[in-house]
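Materials and Methods. Structural model of 3-hydroxyisobutyrate dehydrogenase. The 289-residue sequence of 3-hydroxyisobutyrate dehydrogenase from Micromonospora krabiensis was retrieved and submitted for structure prediction as follows.
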Amino acid sequence: MAGTQRVAVLGLGGMGEPMAVNILRAGLPTAVWNRRPERARRLGEQGARVADSPADAVDGADVVITMVTDADAVLSIADEQGMLAAVPDGAIWAQMSTIGVDGTERVARLVAERRPGVVLLDAPVAGSRGPAEQGKLLVLASGPPEVRERIAPVFDAVGQRTVWAGPVGAGSRLKLANNLLLAFLAEGIAEALALGRALGLDRATVIGALQGGPLVSPWAAEKLERIGRDDYSPQYPLNLALKDVDLALREVEADRFAVAASLAERWRRAVGQGLGGDDVTVVTRALDG
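The predicted structure was written out as tokens:
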């Protein structure tokens, strides 16, 4: 029964917080922990149990979700802060942060060595804060097929669709491919608008022509609308988008993916200019500058 699943959500940033909200709305008993406790307290006002530590959060949990910045943060929570030692045997650890291939392998080794009775799922999500708030993320899951039914109420609460990609590690690989396409879409929007400006066109005219056209997805349409308002508040911050491109490039021969490598270097310069905390669409401003 969905109501019997006790969930712990560790990490309440731009994605983790709305995910936890939707898990609560689905009626699943939820414990939350965050490095900055004020975010956890907000969830406490909505019915979550606010934990003092990662180990406290997972006490009695059936499902544990980690949603933090990178592999080092995941491993710190799991090992140094005692989460993995405190997880009950038979519980599912759904590692949903984007940590790349090597990071996922490090997590899998830790579980195999320390807690083989814990079921690890590698399940990053596709989508930014808006879809997270709406419960419309795409879950890119991988791991043992026998736990799919058990985890379904949780994944259904945060996402509109779950794609099962194979054994642990396949989800993270699929996420890197997804985010590389997203990077090209963001850069393509920025360069199209910059080209229009260089050709003497008003930006609003270019945006109006692109919106509703056959090449513009709902994601791109929403980004164009926000660019038109000069709204670069972070949904998918540029520094995280760059991190994801770098994670992909670490796994392949750079010469084969020269366009992605060039994009990463240009984005690195934009981050160096202080734009890393803004939405990935801020590359439009960087090109205009």
